[in-house]
Amino acid sequence: MCSSDLITLEVLIGGIGGSERRARNYTVLTLGWSIANMAGPMIAGYMIDGFGHPRTFLVLAAFTASPLLILAWYRNLLPEVGSERPAHTAARGNVMELWRNKSLRTVIICAGINGSAQDLFQFYMPVYGHSIGMSASAIGTILGTMYGAAFCVRALIPWMVKRMAELRILTGAVFLAAITYGLIPLFTHEIVIAILAFALGLGVGCATPMTLSLLYALSPAGRVAEAIGLQKTVRHGSYLVVPMIFGSVGALFGNVAVFLSNSALLAGSGMHMRK
Prior knowledge:
- The chain is mainly α.
- Helix content is 81%, strand content 0%.
- It contains 10 helices and no strands.
- Residues 82-90 have low confidence and may be disordered.
């Protein structure tokens, strides 16, 4: 799904049912992402081992085309959404005004770091797994385990937000991800790494719906889409920077340095949020 579609979807989801249902709505959305991200690596890993790469790409292409068929068949599937932040009352301004909002900027930076941590694991875990002799199916299972944990923790978020502030939950999730990242390169056994991947999934999985909910709540009236778009810009900037930086770190200093440096980055983000 392209970024513009995601922005539209996330703004739409945030406006359904009012503020009291926002965290729950984003939880349901990210639960769907968790199912897809959990099934995708596992299906791909076993398909590659059993049938080869060409047939695997055909199966994944079929998954990609299925939403088009669903929307074509059910034309009224998407709901009408009333907004509690009407656009005509918004004070328009430069996007840098959003960036100068300290609370909003902190959440955007945290979301970017958390997203890059998730993407780096998806990118670098196969490299690390291959270096210690793992099969494609084992690597796919470990990646799927992380997203399985994300699914589990996201199912508990509506219960969690009734007992703790969203920012406190987000800060704890970032620290959990930081600790887990630091432990992964210390082990080579597949089961141990899968357990650590599950713990990492609890951290990064919990952080995603929390950052979306906070972005919606902290954005000025009528500027939610701009704030989410700014967050996507930071996130996609990490797509360019993170593989080059951590790929170079891995080439120069080895696999351990990649995981430890990202652990330090997550820990720094968590400490900044605590302030």
